Amino acid sequence: MSKHFFGDTGVLLGRSLRHITRSPDTIITTAIMPIAMMLMFVYVFGGAINIGSGTSYVNYMLPGILLITVASGIAYTAYRLFMDMQGGIFERFQSMPTARSSVLWAHVLTSLVANLVSLVVVMLVALLMGFRSSAGILAWLSVAGILILFTLALTWIAVIPGLSAKTMEGASAFSYPLIFLPFLSSAFVPTDTMPTVLRVFADNQPVTSIVNAVRALFAEQPVGNDIWIALGWCVGILVVAYAFAMNAYRRKIS
């Protein structure tokens, strides 16, 4: 059964990736908005934002930009799922001897690949803008692991509206609050500069711990509890989103 699942997922993943390569503008579009934000914050607002001495602003805000990149990219996952649902692709696959969940996993893995490409593009632009890190290979692997977990968690969230939305706009509109969430965190300014109510929210939402962990890893500073809180958030969101997505999928194909 496992061989059947992996083989079917591999075939369907190849199909989805071919669609991406035929339409690379989705990856370009995903990267353009975070890059534009990065340029604006660094060159327009950066001089007016006080983050303390010894840290360049591009180094400070890059982790938040990376999370915004992922949040932007998963909208396309919901869109592609919605289009497949509307086109009857799911029913066609269900009439074949394929593993039932392989269709969803193919979309999820496609999202992971596409978002990783977008993240690399954003990182390259950040390097051109002056981002520097002396982090070792273990720290970089830790950052990659956190970003992969975060991408998987948000992608499974995207699966839910992709399966249940009534319109194409509704399928992708869910990503807007996720894109906005980093602005209410430590991504762009320290939370201690915020009003009390906003600071309490910012300090206790998932993006802040993830941003703080990635920022500390890039700077080779102690990560403290942030990395465990970040991993807890990512895994928790992933498990809950996966459960709801599979439930929505079973209702759709039943």
Automatic annotation (TrEMBL):
It is found in: Cell membrane; Membrane. The chain crosses the membrane at residues 27-49, 61-82, 103-131, 137-159, 227-249. It is a multi-pass membrane protein. Pfam families: ABC2_membrane. InterPro entries: ABC2_TM, ABC2_TM_bact-type, ABC_2_transport, Nod_factor_ABC_transporter. The keyword Membrane applies. One of its GO terms (cellular component) is ATP-binding cassette (ABC) transporter complex. Its main location: membrane. GO terms for biological process: response to antibiotic. This is Transport permease protein. Belongs to the ABC-2 integral membrane protein family. The lineage of its organism: Bacteria, Bacillati, Actinomycetota, Actinomycetes, Streptosporangiales. The keyword Membrane applies. Residues 25-252 form the ABC transmembrane type-2 domain.
